[in-house]
Amino acid sequence: MSVVPSPDYALLARDIKQWALELGFAQAAISGVELGEDETHLEHWLGEGLHGEMDYMARHGTRRSRPAELEPGTLRVISVRMDYRAPGTRHAWDVLNDGEAGYVARYALGRDYHKLMRNRLQKLAERIRAAIGEFGYRAYVDSAPVLEKALARNAGLGWIGKHTVLINKDAGSYFFLGELYTDLPLPVDAPATAHCGTCTRCIEVCPTQAILGPYRLDARRCISYLTIELKGSIPEELRAPMGNRIFGCDDCQLVCPWNKFAQDATEPDFAPRHSLDGAKLAELFGWSEQEFLRRTEGMAIRRTGYEGWLRNIAVALGNAPSSAQVVATLRTREHAASRIVREHVAWALARHGERILEGGPQPAAS
């Protein structure tokens, strides 16, 4: 009876990294599954209630920080990253400084990355299987309780910055992460070391002061949370600081010095759709629900839902420079079916009414 030889795991690891590049990933690296310090950090964060309404962050217990509990038999994690900054996109600061435009986080302008990256990870697994035979694995892209940034850091793909975003020394932070949990005893890569130094630009720039200090994010104040995860009313004191950000926020990344090394995406599907890299608020506020669903098909923006979309735009219109057109646009939703939308429209109209009473149309105060 013939014995099947064990794979040369060092050679296999090198091949996996090359196959990942061929599949369109910018980089791949391998880590173990020990996340003890990160588990403690997560437990403290949850204990302080800084996750807001994201109950799923606590629901899965230690499966998030113990990969073998999520996928039994897991010995290693292959982490991959994919750049998403599309070439030709309108400059972020230009949009943020245009009070009549709506700002959408740069990662969400094109095709939703979840399915695209999962498909690529599945192809990577198939390449591995073709080389060595059957093995245990499972692919994840924001689809399960996974501490993806900690795993990527341990694999050497970058360090977790003071804003809690992963930073790569050669590619900044504009990239997505994905993981392939596997039972293969592959050699692991060296973890990344931190290079933020004394810089605190990300903490200082946050419009809502959501970054309480290095590595401490209060999600309840974060604009990404407010515009995407939060399903009810946005706290009134946070509406003006939101400016024209209608889906997500990039400010902490925009000021990060390491993003001078950011790489453009090679995936054409990440290019902006429907001119959402600077579309006018009045136009977006006019979308019907059917139009919203049609235009956002296959995009991350769908996550906010139509009600959340109108709520967010109403806040941005309340922060826009006062004009008869802005007021008229808001009045088109003054009697919307949604109580949430009506509430935020009323707030926005009151903002413009106060400004006009104080001396005529003028820009909104941030």
UniProtKB/TrEMBL annotation:
Origin: domain of life: Bacteria
Catalytic reactions of this protein: epoxyqueuosine(34) in tRNA + AH2 = queuosine(34) in tRNA + A + H2O
Pfam families xref list: Fer4_16, QueG_DUF1730
Binding site for [4Fe-4S] cluster 1: 196, 199, 202, 256
Residues involved in tRNA binding: 231
Record PROSITE patterns: 4FE4S_FER_1, 4FE4S_FER_2
GO cellular component terms given for this protein: cytoplasm
EC code(s) of this entry: 1.17.99.6
Keywords from the named record: 4Fe-4S, Cobalamin, Cobalt, Cytoplasm, Iron, Iron-sulfur, Metal-binding, Oxidoreductase, Queuosine biosynthesis, tRNA processing
Listed GO biological process terms: tRNA queuosine(34) biosynthetic process
InterPro entries reported for this sequence: 4Fe4S_Fe-S-bd, 4Fe4S_Fe_S_CS, QueG, QueG_DUF1730
Cofactor: cob(II)alamin; [4Fe-4S] cluster
UniProt pathway: tRNA modification; tRNA-queuosine biosynthesis
Catalytic-site annotation from UniProt: 142
Record text on cofactor binding: Binds 2 [4Fe-4S] clusters per monomer.
UniProt domain 4Fe-4S ferredoxin-type: residue ranges: 184-216
Stretches of the chain forming a coiled coil according to its record: none
An MF annotation (GO) of this entry: metal ion binding
Iron-sulfur is among the record's keywords: yes
Binding positions for [4Fe-4S] cluster 2 per the UniProt entry: 206, 222, 249, 252
Residues engaged in binding cob(II)alamin: 64, 142, 166, 177, 224, 249-250
Role according to the record: Catalyzes the conversion of epoxyqueuosine (oQ) to queuosine (Q), which is a hypermodified base found in the wobble positions of tRNA(Asp), tRNA(Asn), tRNA(His) and tRNA(Tyr).
Complexes and interactors: Monomer.
Family, similarity comment: Belongs to the QueG family.
PANTHER family associated with the record: EPOXYQUEUOSINE REDUCTASE (PTHR30002)
Protein name: Epoxyqueuosine reductase
